Automatic annotation (TrEMBL):
Annotated protein name in UniProt: Putative reverse transcriptase domain-containing protein
Residues in Tf2-1-like SH3-like domain copies: 202-266
Organism taxonomic ancestry: Eukaryota, Viridiplantae, Streptophyta, Embryophyta, Tracheophyta
Lineage: superkingdom: Eukaryota
Keywords, comma-separated and alphabetical: Nucleotidyltransferase, RNA-directed DNA polymerase, Transferase
Gene3D superfamilies registered for this protein in UniProt: Ribonuclease H-like superfamily/Ribonuclease H (3.30.420.10)
One Pfam family matching this protein: SH3_Tf2-1
Molecular functions per Gene Ontology: nucleic acid binding; RNA-directed DNA polymerase activity
Length: 351
């Protein structure tokens, strides 16, 4: 004997847990499908099970109420019509025989669903012959129910949901394995070409610094090439990827322990080393460039505003460098240029 049972627990999740533990004690108990949903303060647990009636009545909890509206004895039934509420996810199971007519399905639908929950606003059903028939469409039209057929967006109505979950799980595993294989392949390529950089105590290294103007540039920033200063002597090795070096007095703000990526092995050609004279480096190893003079001005026209920009000449170590910067930012960042910049204003004909 097989029952389709709808369990309603009115005292919270603790009762549902107790119900499941109590059902585990039944040796011949087997859950085919289950669903848990919260409707207001009521926790509705719906599941399908196979168990003898006498054994189930003996071991079920006393505070468990079984709604016989969904309990049917399966005697010769090979199919079941499942009606699921899209909001609460509660379900009705209507057992059907292979030779049952649409008239019997209609009577069960009116008895088990319409009489208890009222006429439905809309129904999404699969494309079974019973639901695509003219009689079923006329019945729902007379009841005022909109009848929609399943599409690719509702695969669960055609009993494809478990298959989709299984296929999706397999695809996720395949995607993970392929991504990991691609990572390992790329890592093997990098490991062949990239050699670990190691230094010894007493070696001379060059220190990497980055050029930085100190203002937000108007538009895109030009590509900056890395620069190295030094050489400096390595005093000790700290861990596996850091070294302690002896810095000059001009770099007193920089921490003496540096990551290996900031260092470069110094060759014996001393003239290639960049001296520290007239070079300013902050605590983050950014090479600070200062403006020398204002060369020109221009008005940047936007949709609803006008921005005054100036052409700045920088004291770059790479040679003369000219960029367009906003006047207000330059005036705020470099107060010593205020006397020059205050005369650069937008005239009336430039508005």
């Amino acid at each position: 004997k097989e029952y389709y049972v709808k369990v309603v627990c009115n005292k919270g999740r603790g009762v549902a847990v107790a119900v499941l533990k109590a059902l585990e004690s039944i040796t011949s108990f087997q859950i085919q499908s289950s669903n848990l949903a919260t409707v207001g303060d009521t926790l509705v647990l719906t599941f399908t099970l196979k168990v003898s009636a006498c054994e189930f009545d003996k071991k079920r909890p006393p505070n468990l109420k079984i709604l016989l509206s969904g309990a049917f004895l399966k005697q010769g039934f090979k199919f079941k019509t499942v009606i699921v509420d899209r909001l609460t996810k509660s379900a009705h199971f209507l057992p059907m025989r292979e030779d049952d007519t649409l008239e019997k399905l209609t009577r069960q639908y009116l008895k088990e669903v319409v009489s208890k929950h009222g006429v439905q606003v809309s129904i999404i059903s699969d494309r079974d012959g019973r639901f695509t028939s003219h009689f079923w469409k006329s019945l729902n039209k007379a009841l005022g129910t909109r009848l929609d057929m399943s599409t690719a967006y509702h695969p669960e109505t055609d009993a494809h949901w478990p298959e989709i979950i299984h296929e999706t799980t397999e695809k996720i595993v395949q995607i993970k394995s392929r991504i990991q294989a691609a990572r390992d392949r790329q890592k093997s390529y990098v490991d062949v070409r990239l050699k670990p950089l190691e230094f010894r105590v007493g070696d001379k290294v060059m220190l990497k610094v980055s050029p930085w103007t100190g203002v937000i540039r108007f538009g895109k920033r030009e590509k900056l090439n890395p620069r190295y200063i030094g050489p400096f002597k390595i005093l000790a090795r700290v861990g596996t990827v850091a070294y302690r070096i002896k810095l000059a007095e001009q770099l007193s703000r920089v921490h003496i322990t540096l990551y290996v990526s900031k260092l470069k092995k110094c060759m014996a050609d001393e003239p290639l080393a960049i001296p520290l004279d007239e070079i300013q480096v902050d605590d983050k190893l950014n090479f600070i460039e200062e403006p020398v003079e204002i060369m020109d001005r221009e008005v940047k026209r936007l949709k609803q505003s006008r921005i005054l920009i100036v052409k700045v000449h920088w004291n770059s170590r790479r040679g003369p460098e000219f960029t367009w910067e906003r006047k207000d930012q330059m005036q705020k960042k470099y107060p010593h240029l205020s006397q020059i910049l205050r005369w650069w204003k937008i005239t009336r004909h430039e508005l």
